[in-house]
Write a structure and sequence with these properties.
The protein has 2 domains: about 190 residues, Rossmann fold, CATH 3.40.50.720; about 200 residues, Rossmann fold. Helix content is about 40%, strand content about 15%. The chain is built from 16 helices and 14 strands. The strands form 3 sheets. A 6-stranded parallel beta sheet has the order 3-2-1-4-5-6, with helices on both faces. Strands 11-10-9-12-13-14 form a 6-stranded parallel beta sheet. Helix 9 crosses helix 11, helix 9 runs parallel beside helix 12 and helix 12 crosses helix 13. The protein binds uridine-5'-diphosphate-xylopyranose.
Length: about 425
């Protein structure tokens, strides 16, 4: 059905809400269930409780046109729905295992509440083999439809996906789910459920490996005296490599890449396959963070005890308010462990009561305040606003003007003119 389907989406988080808005935009009638009281309350009052470019307008338009509404329970959303999308969190449990309790809870609510002939579509990232377990729990055909959207560009990625993957043992059901997205014009990959689930992990594992490669390359460039930005330019023109996803940084983070690489390593181990290459990519990510810590220690004069370090950026990347598995937090904690006082500024984090994940960090109202009395400042998230600062003013506020630019965002020549000692990533 290319348009006009009745769709339920369970979960209004980083995946469920953009999915709901895009399905409505594609001409379907969507009922989205959110059981979290605060989040449901915000949505019911017309507020979108996350920073995501273009999403608030799209949700607003869909609600105003009657194509999207919000309810509290999965069972309520499933009433009358031909397709029920499961978009709930599947966090890591720390040991590589995946916490499936939210998915299982939804499956048990759906069992008995689904319309005859309804198809369950799983978008949550789950260990390979989960779709068939969900079929047993819900009594309905389950199609695996992994989500590849990036936070911060969720609307664009969902409206113009590079591909749509649908996997089910019942290929007809898979194709029907694929047709819901035909309005995007994206290529459709139809396969079995196990393969679709594997594609999701493979995609994130490949991206993580690519980033670990470029971060290691930055380290190599520093050792041999090459410039990583020109190396990437020379690599990127090769169409087999491309320019995307090759910016060196303080390591990769977020709610997906760390969790999904750990989960895939566990899936591989359980299946008796030693995925040594992926293990190395994960280990290299810890090294990438540690290299940034060493640069900050060096910039601050060799040790951090009793020193103040300014930190610019706390989210795991720019364009989102998400701090889950943020490299910036990992680096900040290490700096505090080494004795530093960390003063931090992020445009999405207001000063005031300190949230539990930022415990010990002094939250500042602006980037200048974060540098007051600092022996070094570390730029850890690539927010554009850091490019337009008055660096002479920053230098004047610091006890010694030293800057570690972990995102290669700034112009070293301009900083040196302002009196800074500048350290980038893999730059000459
Ligand atoms: C990722 C995948 O890209 C997406 O397809 C999947 O659906 C969910 O996981 P997301 O977590 O939103 O998306 O972040 P992404 O943009 O992929 O960035 C991941 C991490 O890599 C961030 O910490 C980011 O700063 C870092 N990164 C990304 C770099 O350091 N350099 C780059 O060139 C790109």
């Amino acid at each position: 059905m290319t348009a006009g389907a009745r769709v339920a989406v369970i979960g209004a988080g980083y995946v469920g809400l953009p999915t709901s808005a895009v399905l409505a935009r594609l001409g379907h009638t969507v009922t989205c269930a959110e059981r979290d009281e605060a989040r449901f309350g915000a949505l019911a009052a017309g507020r979108v409780p996350m920073l995501e470019e273009g999403l608030a307008e799209m949700v607003h338009d869909a609600v105003a046109s009657g194509a999207l509404r919000f309810v509290r329970s999965a069972a309520e959303a499933a009433r009358g729905a031909q397709f029920v999308f499961v978009c709930v969190a599947t966090p890591g449990r720390g040991d590589g295992a995946t916490d499936l309790s939210a998915v299982e809870q939804v499956a048990s609510e759906l069992a008995g509440a689904l319309e005859p002939g309804a198809i369950v579509v799983n978008k949550s990232t789950v260990p390979v083999g989960t779709a068939s377990a969900l079929e047993r729990m819900t009594g309905a055909p389950v199609v695996s439809n992994p989500e590849f959207l990036r936070e911060g560009s969720a609307v664009r990625d969902s409206l113009h996906p590079d591909r749509v993957v649908v996997g089910a043992d019942d290929r007809r059901a898979a194709r029907r789910v694929g047709e819901l997205f035909s309005g995007t014009g994206a290529p459709l990959v139809v396969t079995d459920a196990l393969t679709a689930e594997t594609i999701k992990y493979a995609s994130n594992a490949f991206l993580a490996t690519k980033l670990s490669f470029v971060n290691a390359l930055a380290g190599l460039c520093e050792s041999v005296g090459a410039d990583v930005r020109d190396v990437v330019l020379g690599l990127g023109y090769d169409r087999r490599i491309g320019f995307d996803f090759l910016r060196p940084g303080p390591g990769w983070g977020g709610s997906c890449l760390p969790k999904d690489t750990d989960a895939l390593l566990r899936v591989a181990e359980a299946a008796g396959y030693d995925f040594a290459l992926l293990r190395a990519a994960v280990e290299a990510n810890a090294e990438a963070r540690e290299r940034v810590v060493r640069k900050v220690v060096h910039a601050a004069g060799g040790q951090l005890s009793g020193r103040t370090v300014g930190v610019w950026g706390l989210t795991f990347k720019a364009g989102t308010d998400d701090r889950r598995m943020s490299p910036s937090l990992a680096v900040s904690r290490r700096l505090m462990d080494l004795g530093a006082v960390v003063r931090a500024y992020d445009p999405t984090v207001p000063p005031g009561p300190v949230p539990s994940d930022l415990e010990g960090i002094v939250l500042c109202a602006d980037p200048y305040d974060a540098c007051r009395g600092a022996s070094a400042v570390a730029l850890l998230t690539e927010w554009e606003e850091f490019c337009g600062l008055d660096f002479a003013k920053v230098a004047g506020l610091m006890s010694a003007p030293a800057l570690v630019d972990a995102r290669n965002l700034l112009d070293p020549a301009a900083l040196r003119r302002a009196g800074f000692s500048y350290t980038g990533m893999g730059r000459r």
